[in-house]
Amino acid sequence: MPRMKVQGQHHRSIEADPSTRIVRFIDQTRLPHAFVLSEATHWTQIESAIRDMAVRGAPLIGVAAAFGLALAMTEDASDDQLNLVSQRLNATRPTAVNLAWALERMTSHLQPLLIENRQAAAWREAQAIADEDVAINEAIGRHTLPLIQAIAQKKDVVNILTHCNAGWPATVDWGTALSGIYQAQLANIRLHVWVDETRPRSQGLLTAWELREQGVPHTFIADNAGGHLMQHGQVDMVIVGADRVSLKGDVCNKIGTYLKALAAFDNGIPFYAAVPSPTIDRTLRDALGEIEIEERAGSEVRRIQGLDADGQLTSLQLLPEGSPVSNPGFDVTPARLVTGIITEKGVAAAGELARLFG
Ligand code: MRU
Questions:
Q1: What is the pLDDT of residue 73?
Q2: Model-level pTM?
């Protein structure tokens, strides 16, 4: 069932037209101020879109990379091209495992085929990855719903805090952390979402935008507010997304997630990560030591972007050049702080993930 709407019209965050070989995606660098669809006709445009975060969110960058390989196969379906483009796309962002997962799936599907059959097969496989993402996220939402329902039986309004954007723009449709919220809305459960701003790139703006578009009550908060709200009984549960999760249940997600998990633990508030199976990295032994944490440009911290008095998108300097800046993009929340991992197969205690996916 298609779900997400912008001004009443359904959109997927990425769509491909195999007849024209055009990939269309929402340019997330323009949200929430402008809804702009961009087109890619060459794989290098997908490479830039992932690197510059026009497409972002772990599941979506995997799907985008798959379509990027399909564009590359349209140009030249040789082994050299397959290997080169796969490596180039994989190098765009290091932390979310979905990127490598999707490229590996595409490559192992295409490699054994005759060169003349690769182009059509690449478009079919990329589309299958996109369609599976929608089904996985819908299933995650179905498994989240009873957790929300259980709280709704005791309270008038369920207050959920989320960090970053793990909604539909970060996936093809539904979102991961927000999928259950949309399903609770369909089930007429009264809820309200606390939306962390998530500096430095403020992905919380995307979350506020999509919740507003879908008519879900929400409040945008500065990143430092969550702990205080938890201490005062204003948060019933936390649901976040993930970029890479170990079988032990350690959750790598957007920077700041760990602090929210600590505050939730201290206040006895359930903390859930919504995790599609392609986000699980079975090779990880020590998530804290082994995951490459993306270090992004200092300008993201030093500057801030928004609309000026004339409604023009503008960038302002906050911090003078003399002070150095550090900008790690992700952190790891240890499994002991995670109440449960919500997957398409059901909810597992963090330590039991291996039972479902090992
Ligand atoms: O840097 P981003 O915006 O790509 O980071 C996104 C996140 O950390 C999300 O929480 C995660 O990818 C899950 S999206 C369903």
A1: 98
A2: 0.97
Instruction: Calculate how far, in angstroms, residue 116's C-alpha sits from the geometric centre of ligand 1.
Output: 36
Q: CB burial class (10 A; 0-12, 13-18, 19+) of residue 34? A: exposed
In the numeric block, the tokens 């040789």 are attached to 78
Ligand 1 site, residue 176, Cβ cutoff 6 A: yes
**What is the separation, in whole angstroms, between the first and last Cα of the chain?**
30
Tell me if residue 236 falls in helix, strand or coil: coil
For the Cβ of 96 lying below 6 angstroms from any atom of ligand 1, the answer is: yes
Q: Dump pLDDT digits (tens) for 168-225.
A: 999 999 999 999 999 999 999 999 999 999 999 999 999 999 999 999 999 999 999 9
Instruction: Please answer whether residues 73 and 119 qualify as being in contact, where contact means their C-beta atoms are separated by less than 8 angstroms.
Output: yes
Q: Which atom of ligand 1 is nearest to the CA of 53?
A: 4
Mean pLDDT of the chain: 97
Q: What number of residues does the chain have?
A: 358
Beta carbons within 8 Å of 353's beta carbon, 6+ residues apart: 245, 246, 247, 248, 249, 280, 341, 343
pLDDT the model gives residue 2? 57
| Res 1: pLDDT | 61
Q: Which two tokens stand for residue 54?
A: 């026009």
Instruction: Say if CB 79 and CB 88 are below 8 A apart.
Output: no
Residue 308 is among the residues annotated as catalytic for this protein: no
| Cα(163)–Cα(175) distance, integer angstroms | 13
| C-alpha to C-alpha distance for 301 and 156, rounded to whole angstroms | 39
Q: How far is CA 230 from the centre of its chain?
A: 24
Per-residue DSSP letters for 11-36? --SEEEETTTTEEEEE-TTSTTT---
pLDDT of residue 8: 86
